[in-house]
């Protein structure tokens, strides 16, 4: 069994790593994890892979602590931490799989509407999903009749950017909010240009907005890291609360949100049964991961954004197949942050052993 674990990364991270420039990713955690499991991590881009070549040039940490290019036998197991691939790159992934290379988290970018459609098949999950439809005029009118607040956002991940919120004020009057700016308008008259643009864009979705519980007057949600572990089973590697910036409705750190210990948020409201809420979130998150893995068999690492209603009922806001992980660092959750790197390496070891056994 080769002791190299391949980790497929973005060109951005590859170039930063070669130049020894720090990023949000902590590659030293991969080094520590691989050391624990008797493996050596090697980092490369999709462009570095030649399907018919048995070897590959990858970044490997040297004894002096710096990364250097090294020619080595192509790893038999690869953990994908890259972004969405172009068609030619996807073809390359498929050819690697035919060669017997195992690639987990084969895809790291899914359309929100597809994830919604995968999950709504499960009756235990469907009640925890906001109503969601592709963006078009008919669906927009449908949603206006059913909900007091709706969101229109890109079908692909955007770190909380490119989202508009609509709130009904009275009858046909609605308030549009985008990037902290507000505009009142009537749906029976001329719509704001931004709204027309969003609705007519088939790359967007229209979604029921969940009225989230708040912390110090600002809405919050919980990032839940769900990963496959050393035994090939789903586990919760960590949970962290994300609170929206004052005056904003998105909680993403990239949009000004702040990270807190979940206990800090829940203890703020003495009416909350902290242990029950945490267990409900964990159970719900594992259920989602199980359901998604029936549709996406190579999925092994997801970051779920789970919101709580004012009645403490968990609702799925979003599923991220490439969890950024630094939310744990921002909240001072060092052990959880580290665990989000160690767990995928343990799963890689499990896959290697399973492959060697021929099962």
TrEMBL record:
Gene3D superfamilies: ATP-grasp fold, B domain. It comes from the Bacteria. This is YheC/YheD family protein.
């Amino acid at each position: 069994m080769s002791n190299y674990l391949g980790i497929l990364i973005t060109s951005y991270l590859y170039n930063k790593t070669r130049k020894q420039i720090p990023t949000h990713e902590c590659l030293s955690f991969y080094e520590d994890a691989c050391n624990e499991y008797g493996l050596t991590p090697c980092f490369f881009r999709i462009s570095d892979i030649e399907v018919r070549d048995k070897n590959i040039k990858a970044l490997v940490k040297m004894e002096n602590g710096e990364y250097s290019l090294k020619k080595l036998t192509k790893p038999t197991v690869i953990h994908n931490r890259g972004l969405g691939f172009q068609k030619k790159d996807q073809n390359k992934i498929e050819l690697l799989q035919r060669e017997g290379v195992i690639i987990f988290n084969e895809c790291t970018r899914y359309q929100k509407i597809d994830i919604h459609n995968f999950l709504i098949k499960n009756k235990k999950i469907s009640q925890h999903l906001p109503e969601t439809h592709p963006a078009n005029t008919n669906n927009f009118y449908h949603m206006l009749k059913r909900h007091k607040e709706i969101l229109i956002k890109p079908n692909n991940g955007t770190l909380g950017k490119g989202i508009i919120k609509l709130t009904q004020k009275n009858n046909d009057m609605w308030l549009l909010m985008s990037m902290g700016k507000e505009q009142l308008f009537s749906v029976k008259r001329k719509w704001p240009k931004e709204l027309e643009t969003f609705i007519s864009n088939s790359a967007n979705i229209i979604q029921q907005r969940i009225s989230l519980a708040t912390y110090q007057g600002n809405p919050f949600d919980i990032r839940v890291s769900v990963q496959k572990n050393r035994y090939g089973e789903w586990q919760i590697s960590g949970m962290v609360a994300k609170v929206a910036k004052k005056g904003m409705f998105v909680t993403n750190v990239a949009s000004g949100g702040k990270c807190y210990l979940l206990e800090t948020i829940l203890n703020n409201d003495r009416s909350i049964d902290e242990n029950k809420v945490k267990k409900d979130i964990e159970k719900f998150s594992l259920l989602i991961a199980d359901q998604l893995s029936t549709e996406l068999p190579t999925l092994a690492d997801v970051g779920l954004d789970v919101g709580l209603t004012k009645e403490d009922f968990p609702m799925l806001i979003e599923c991220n197949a490439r969890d950024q992980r630094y939310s744990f660092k921002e909240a001072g959750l060092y052990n959880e942050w580290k665990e989000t790197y160690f767990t995928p390496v343990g799963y890689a070891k499990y896959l290697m052993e399973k492959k060697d056994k021929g099962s």
